[in-house]
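All the exercises in this workshop are built on plain-text protein records. Sequence and backbone structure share a record, each on its own labelled line. The question running through the whole workshop is how a given chain folds. The record below serves as our worked example for the rest of this section.
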Amino acid sequence: MRAPKPRTAKSASALPATPATSARSGSYFGQPQPAQEKREKVTVSVNASLLATVDDFVGRHAKTNRSAVIDQALNMWCLWLQEQEDKAYYTNLTAAERAERKGWTDAAAQSATESWDK
């Protein structure tokens, strides 16, 4: 049985809207990133209205900056990519794989029930 890939970040629905958290680091906008997390400097061209929206948000939230907003956007995009991969994986399971998966799920549920009853 091929086990699903473990998620390395919070699901998108678990993230508050404002202030948004970095799914990777768990920090809020504007807070320092962990020292071990290496930062890379990049140059990108973005739609002017998107940048205006980012700048408006940054202007209203003193503890944030453009980089934090872009980090959050990229984290959300990575979560979306993972969700698409998960969806494709589960959608394409064969009948035998689904049956095996159900067996594992049933065994785990039974084990949990037995341990709770003790």
